[in-house]
Amino acid sequence: MAKARLSAEGRRQWQEQQARRARIYRRRRAVVVLLLILVLALIGYLLPRAWDGVRTALGWDQTLSEVRGDQLPGGQDASPNSEPSSEPSSGPAQEPAPERASDPSWDPDSIHVLVNPQNPLEPEDYAPEDLVAPQVRTTAENQLLLREPAAEALAQLIDAAGADGQVLAMTSGYRSYDAQVGIYANRHAAVGTEATDELVARPGYSEHQTGLAADVISIENPDCIQGDCFADTPEGQWVAENAADHGFVIRYLEGAQEITGYDFEPWHLRYVGQDTAREVAAQGLTLEEYWDQPAAAEYDDAAPPLP
Fold first, then answer.
1. Are 294 and 118 in contact (CB under 8 A)?
2. Domain of life here (predicted)?
3. In sequence order, what are the beta bridge partners of 132?
4. What is residue 305's predicted lDDT score, i.e. its pLDDT?
């Protein structure tokens, strides 16, 4: 009988203990659920703000707008609710200008060296190291020289002219600094500074000193040796039409004295290479214009240094 009472009492205590454990468990679970809800609510509150900050920092909003097409060029809104712009469209974008065959150089050894009254050779007594005698007919008693690439090109030009029935000869090529001093001084003594500057380059400013310039004449038209009328001879016309195919340009064009500083010289050829020469001739430009350089009609010094 006593055992039965003890057993019943033990079961009751065990049941009460289990009930307490269940209540504690439910409370803990409720606390955990409440904490979880609070954490989720906090995340839901903070995450959008953090995401906005990230997008702003990385510039994603603008990128997405561009991908969706929400904005037109110039910042115009292309959304369905936007007002149409009253400003006219600027039209298609301008294509970049094509690259030219060459750029100007101030290296005297370059075939693209720019020499004019504003751009003297540096050093002023520069002398090329690859001078050779072109295999062409000449009118000079002394040997005429050019830099090797110009000499080869001139020989090809004169040969091609001969094949077309036009007889050309070379009458001038490389001139040293000292030779140019003598030529300039002699003419200056006769006609003065202004008249001399129109036709003869000052020492250190001559294209002939580069070894890239050659003067040609018509053998069959001796009355037009180094005169404007050379341009009207069959040989002069052939040169104007074909020089570029051999890498030469007519350096001093008619009507371009205010750009080049020199009167029209249809006999004066300057070697710049075939690609550049063809572009210059096709566009009818001086080298100053082709290379986007300022006009160089006058020297900085009013009077040249003379011996």
1. yes
2. Bacteria
3. 146
4. 74
Tokens of 290: 């082709």
pLDDT digits (tens, 9 = 90+) for 134-189: 999 998 888 999 999 999 999 999 999 999 999 999 999 999 999 999 999 999 99
Residue at 133: amino acid letter: A
Assigned domain for 297 exists? no
Question: Is residue 245 situated within a structural domain?
Answer: yes
Burial of 245 (0-12, 13-18, 19+ CB in 10 A): middle
Give which of 218, 107, 227, 127 is closest to 165, Cα–Cα. 218
pLDDT at 10: 66
pLDDT band at 226 (very low <50, low <70, confident <90, very high): confident
Domain count along the chain = 2
| Domain annotation covers residue 198 | yes
Same domain, 150 and 7: no
Whether omega before 123 lies within 30 degrees of 0, making that bond cis, reads: yes
Nearest in space to 217 (alpha carbons), one of 137, 160, 102: 137
Q: Tell me the C-alpha distance between 34 and 19, whole Å.
A: 22
144 and 247: one domain? yes
The predicted structure's pLDDT at residue 94:
66
Q: What is the pTM of this model?
A: 0.69
Q: Of 49, 71, 93, which residue constitutes the final position of a domain?
A: 71
Q: Tens digits of per-residue pLDDT, 26-46? A: 777 777 777 778 777 777 777
Whole-number Å distance between alpha carbons of 83 and 104: 51
Instruction: Say which CATH number the domain at 202 has.
Output: 3.30.1380.10
